[in-house]
Write a structure and sequence with these properties.
Oligomer: single chain
Order of helices and strands: HHHHHHHHH
Number of strands: 0
Number of domains: 1
Bound molecules: protoporphyrin IX containing FE
Largest sheet: none
């Protein structure tokens, strides 16, 4: 009896860590989305497209209508997908508004493809900051997004909701890879009081090579560990994973604070 109560409390700890992580992440993602809407949206609506270049070196290029339109679509879809993602994951939304879940999910999957393809165009055709390592890594991110989107849709279609849920969460994590990158970067700048392990001019260096792969591999690995911990009867393992998730939450909390105060909030008011 005592054993089962203990086992229950370990799982409660695990669930608590995940819920806390999710709440902190959603706050950070919605601040990011608000920045995208206010900064890029305002520049676009007021006709000051060249303001995109304050953040994106190759955001707006005069005369390149198709390329500029693709960047604009990428930014618009970025705001929609960041806001829509958490609404898909929250279990109460699924049970109270199943029709919303179905259509928001279809939109999410469609956007996941378009944003990945437009991102690939921006990296390989238009050119972006960073070097070959970052280009390859973000392209792997794009492929992971499209594969996860396809499988999340396929399992929903087949009514295999157990597998659908797992692939939908993987999709949510890899879609947020670019967000994890920004939060990780600002966490690093905050704790080191400036750039360390990379050249801020070329945007290359060992730390950024590590971060560019970590932006999706660490969240995916933590999710696998969480799935294993959910099934596990090993008390030490479950508590360890709950603790790792809790520490990860503190890390992203610091990163969100640093990114919000360093770039997102100042640019919202630009
Ligand atoms: C699916 C989730 C994605 C979201 C939400 C997203 C969002 C954004 C946002 C908001 C920006 C503007 C930069 C900023 O203000 O911080 C941006 C820029 C950019 N994104 Fe994405 N993006 C996503 C996926 C991708 C993928 C998969 C790729 C590449 C394959 C990509 C490539 C780019 C590039 C190249 C830029 C321009 C950065 C530069 O100047 O080099 N994005 N993205």
């Amino acid at each position: 009896m005592i054993k089962s109560t203990k086992a229950l409390s370990e799982k409660n700890l695990l669930n608590l860590s995940v819920k806390l992580w999710f709440i902190v992440a959603v706050i950070g993602q919605w601040i990011f989305a608000t920045y995208v809407i206010l900064f890029y949206g305002k520049s676009t609506v007021t006709g000051h497209l060249s303001n995109w270049n304050i953040v994106l070196p190759k955001g707006y290029i005069s005369g390149e209508h198709i390329g500029n339109a693709i960047v604009g679509i990428h930014l618009l879809l970025a705001a929609i997908i960041i806001i829509g993602g958490p609404l898909q994951i929250i279990p109460k939304m699924r049970s109270y508004a199943p029709l919303f879940h179905k259509w928001n999910g279809r939109l999410y999957i469609f956007i996941a493809f378009i944003i990945s393809l437009s991102g690939l165009y921006m990296v390989w055709v238009r050119g972006s900051i960073g070097g070959m390592v970052q280009h390859i890594s973000i392209s792997i991110n794009a492929i992971l997004i499209m594969v996860s989107a396809f499988l999340a849709f396929k399992y929903a279609w087949m009514r295999n909701f157990k597998k659908h849920r797992i692939w939908a969460i993987r999709l949510f994590l890899v879609v947020n890879g670019v967000w994890f990158f920004r939060v990780g970067l600002y966490f690093w700048l905050f704790i080191n009081n400036g750039p360390l392990g990379f050249d801020p001019k070329t945007f290359e260096g060992p730390f950024l090579y590590f971060l560019t792969f970590s932006q999706y591999l660490i969240p995916l690995a933590l999710f696998e560990l969480y799935l294993n911990a959910q099934k596990s009867h090993n008390k030490v393992f479950v508590i360890s994973i709950a603790t790792i998730l809790f520490l990860f939450t503190i890390l992203i909390g610091i990163g969100i604070f640093a990114a919000s105060s360093g770039i997102w909030i100042p640019k919202m008011m630009y």
